[in-house]
Amino acid sequence: MNQINILAIIPARRGSKGIKDKNIYEFNSKPLMFWTFQAAQKSKFLDKVIFSSDSEKYISIAKKNGIDAPFLRPDSISADMTSSAEVVIHAIDWVEKNLKLIPTYILYLQPTSPLRTSKDIDNSIILAKKNNADSVISVNP
Fold first, then answer.
1. What is the pTM of this model?
2. pLDDT in tens, 36-65
3. In the chain, at which residue ranges do the beta strands (DSSP E only) sit?
């Protein structure tokens, strides 16, 4: 196994209770998830970014935007009640088994935060490392 420092996981499932296909709904003339792809790609510190989805269509969009989407997430962990932890564990297991990589830090970048920038990502990483923190979460009132 090889150690990598920072793995970012971008999750997006096709189902949505509120807005149908919200993750590809256009926001400022681009699919909503595009803005998270762009922020992750511009980050100075991410070693690996992967996209986790149960939708071939979403995976195709991710790949067209230069994001690694190496697997189709199983339906069993793509339901309304699926926890973020289940999605993260599935992605980490896949990365360890198939890429032989073990991340030190994991970022979970939800595409429903299109105003998050690469600077926000980098600042959270700096904050975590500076404080030897186990986790960092961003919130906004």
1. 0.93
2. 999 999 999 999 999 999 999 999 999 999
3. 2-12, 26-27, 30-31, 48-53, 101-108
Q: Are 61 and 26 in contact (CB under 8 A)?
A: no
Distance from C-alpha of 125 to C-alpha of 50, rounded to nearest angstrom:
17
Contacts of 140 (CB under 8 A, 6+ apart): none
Specify whether the CB–CB gap between 116 and 17 falls below 8 A.
Answer: no
Residue 107: strand pairing partners: 8
Largest CA distance in the chain: 41
Q: What is the DSSP letter of 137?
A: -
Q: Where are the alpha helices (DSSP H) in the chain?
A: 32-42, 56-64, 84-94, 118-130
DSSP reduced 3-state for 117: coil
CA-to-CA distance for 5 and 19, rounded, in angstroms? 35
**CA torsion, ordered 25, 16, 118, 134, to nearest 10 deg:** 180
Taking the C-alpha atoms of residue 122 and residue 40, their distance in angstroms, rounded to an integer, is 9
